[in-house]
Specification:
This protein is mainly beta and 109 residues long. It is 0% helix and 54% strand. It has a single domain, classed as Sandwich (Immunoglobulin-like). The strands form three sheets. Strands 1-7-6-3-4 form a five-stranded mixed β-sheet, with no helix packed on it. It has a two-stranded antiparallel sheet with strand order 2-5. A two-stranded antiparallel sheet has the order 8-9. The radius of gyration is 20 Å and the shape is elongated. The chain starts with 8 loop residues before the first strand and ends with a strand.
């Protein structure tokens, strides 16, 4: 299994994320399991199925997500994507004055 998605994948909190895991060839058929890999706890299965949807994603959901395919023959290597959930309101608008210069629309990320 491989990923064609940029890694890390950056998105803004509050969005819906749909993670898809597709097996191109398998005999017999496979089952797919999604896991969230967290440093503070063991990775546990989040979802069984090729499509995993996260509604209203928040920054606390940032991290690595992996999918594996398994059948009676064995289990695949994991395909992993790193989600980097960005704050919706973290771009703050400032008005700055330096001597005679005036800057509108100065953004700090």
């Amino acid at each position: 299994m491989e990923s064609n998605t940029p890694n890390p994948y950056r998105l803004i909190e509050g969005n819906t994320v749909i993670l898809m895991c597709t097996v191109t060839t398998a005999n017999p058929n496979t089952s797919i399991t999604w896991k969230w890999i967290r440093t503070d706890s063991p990775a546990t299965a989040l979802h069984n199925g090729s499509k995993y949807t996260i509604l209203n994603i928040q920054r606390g959901s940032s991290g690595s997500y992996s999918c594996t395919a398994s059948n009676s023959v064995g289990t695949s290597d994991a395909a992993t994507i790193l989600l980097d959930v960005q704050c919706m309101h973290c771009h703050v608008k400032y008005t700055c004055k330096f001597s005679s210069m005036h800057f509108d629309n100065f953004y700090i990320a």
